Amino acid sequence: MKRWIVIGLLLLVSVTVVIYETQASDRAFFLPAPLGGIKIVVDPGHGGIDGGSSVGDVIEKDITLKMGIALEKELKKQGAVVVMTRSQSGDALDEHNPKATFPTIRARKIADLKLREEMIANTDADLFISVHVNAIPEERWRGAQVFYHKDGHVEGGAVAKAIQASIREQIGNTEREALAIKQVYLLKKATVPAVLVETGFLSNPEEMKLLTTEDYQKKMAKAIADGIENYVNGTVQ
Are 84 and 125 in contact (CB under 8 A)? Predict the structure, then answer.
């Protein structure tokens, strides 16, 4: 009888140890995801016939697509639900309304913007993040900057400042502050906090090389995602 009691106790101890070690090794499973329950529309700028800025063979729409997809992955790692305005080389219309036809390029561009606006409103999103790269005639300018609309959603500025701070800390390519602007249709019309991230300058040769590398694109995506997490969880400095 005593023998069976000892065996039973040993089995109980063994089971307890296994359960504890399993929980300890996978403790993250029991913790809420940092961005759990948050839905974010990620907008890789331009696309299709609208290439955006370019220097030689380097075109903005290609970089923003890669960076947008990298951002999508980072946000999903943190538990967010992500809606992409485009995930291919074409514009949003190519992906979501491929049969649509338009009499002029201008008409198509307007329709494409309207479609992206509708995606923000119709997906029950919490945030809108548009990813871009910049280019100007002077080579000396470099660094990322985050913009929000002066007359847009009241929380747009807070999101922009959180992302800007994260880029300054993790990428270290700028001392700029987030900036309110009066342009950019989608930032004004978005029904949720909305920002545009200019991730750098193609017109700066050194920065262009960085922007075209997968490693840098992933670093920038992580900095943006962490900035969003800081905003959502109220940890902005």
Answer: no
To which H or E segment does residue 21 belong?
helix 2-25
Gap between the Cα atoms of 118 and 190, Å rounded = 9
Q: Per this entry, what is the length of the chain?
A: 237
114 burial via Cβ count (<10 Å: 0-12, 13-18, 19+): middle
Q: Is 58 exposed, middle or buried (0-12, 13-18, 19+ CB in 10 A)?
A: middle
Tokens encoding 53:
């800025």
Beta bridge partners, 82, equal 40
What span, in angstroms and rounded, lies between the C-alpha atoms of 174 and 41? 25
Of 92, 85, 95, 88, which Cα lies nearest the Cα of 108?
Answer: 92
Rounded to whole angstroms, the Cα distance separating 135 from 39 reads 30
Taking the C-alpha atoms of residue 182 and residue 188, their distance in angstroms, rounded to an integer, is 8
- Can you tell me the distance from the alpha carbon of 178 to that of 168, in angstroms, rounded to the nearest whole number? 11
Contact 116, 131 (CB under 8 A): no
Sign of the CA dihedral running 56, 63, 166, 171:
negative
Instruction: Classify residue 30 by its DSSP letter.
Output: G
DSSP 3-state assignment of 171? coil
pLDDT in tens, 148-169: 999 999 999 999 999 999 999 9
Q: What is the pLDDT of residues 186-229, one digit of tens each?
A: 999 999 999 999 999 999 999 999 999 999 999 999 999 999 99
